[in-house]
Amino acid sequence: MYRPNAKIEKLFVDLEKSQIWDKVKRLFQKYKKKWNGPDIPIYIFPIGSSGGIFQSPQTKSGLSFPDKLFLFLSDIGDELEIEALFIHEYHHICRLNGLKKSINEYTLLDSLIMEGLAEDAVHEILGSKYLAEWSKMLSEENFNFYMEKFLQNNLTLKKGTRKHDQLLFGRGLLPNMLGYTCGYHIVRSFRLKNSYTTKESFTLDSENFTNFDN
């Protein structure tokens, strides 16, 4: 439930002054044209303005659905940080529409590849400087360890199940954002040895990435 307070109200004013709605509109127009993406509504909120998962020490966050996008932002000075978030989240929307499968059919493998491809798009467009911190959390050795011990035998887990979310988000004793990090490692390795465009990544089957040593 929304709980306004002085801090959130100030952040809202700061976002208005920074013309964040106009900036995001321009990003939407740019990538909708570039990727021939879907026309969806975008909702922008001050980060921390709602309960649960959106109360965060982060400066930016997003939540994507096939038909809508929510962005949770602070007053970020570097506009490319906003663009990085937008690329990641709008890539999700393009892929969700491109795969044409029910959310109920998605597996842990689909989730890993979804996150990996979105962050790889950030890398390709803006460079490594604007990658999310979670993309850099594991060495190659640690990636191999966690893939073999925790993820590889659980790739068919359905999205929304407790264990799927535990592995994707890295809950309990697992490294934070484990599935995101491993997904990026998988996709980046694939990218370095295979040629495809960002638009093609919207419809690439997740099974293409299952040879983790390719």
UniProtKB/TrEMBL annotation:
Residues 20-209 form the DUF2268 domain. InterPro entries: DUF2268 (IPR018728). This is DUF2268 domain-containing protein.
